[in-house]
Structure formats: structure tokens, C-alpha cells
Amino acid sequence: MEDQLPGEDDLVIPDAWRRSLHARRGGAPGSKIKVAGPATAARAVQGFAERSRGVVEALLQGGAANPS
Question: pTM of the entire structure?
């Protein structure tokens, strides 16, 4: 009898939800992590720094984080 339904105390995660899982030790695996190369990571960090420059400058001057 291998085709049994799970019991009422069993937690069954639907396959469609698995991509939203955060992997836990001993738990169900989450989605695979895609690692970009160092050049892609450097561009991403540089872009983030450029987009948040006004906020950082405002905070350093002791003002509010709204640069406008």
C-alpha cells in the first residue's frame, strides 16, 4: 500500500510553493540559488551604491533619509 494519502498530522507542501521556501536544516530543500559571477556582483553593488547615494549623504549630514 504505497499509494496512501498523508495523515491528518502530516504537513505536505505543494510543489508550486517550494520556490518560496527558505531552506532549513533537516527540512525540505528550497529553490536552487543562482550565483552570478564576480563582475555581475560588482555591477549590482555599484548600481545600488549609485541609487542610494543621496540617502547616504543625507544620513551622514544628520538629516532625514529622504534626499529630496
Answer: 0.39
pLDDT band at 68 (very low <50, low <70, confident <90, very high): low
How many helices and strands (H and E) does the chain possess? Answer: 2, 0
- CB neighbour burial string for 8-40, b if at least 16 within 10 angstroms, e if fewer: eeeeeeeeeeeeeeeeeeeeeeeeeeeeeeeee
Q: How far apart are CA 63 and CA 55, in angstroms?
A: 9
Question: Is pLDDT of 1 > 70?
Answer: no
**Does residue 67 carry a pLDDT above 80?**
no
- Supply the DSSP string of 31-49, one letter for each residue: PPPPPPPHHHHHHHHHHHH
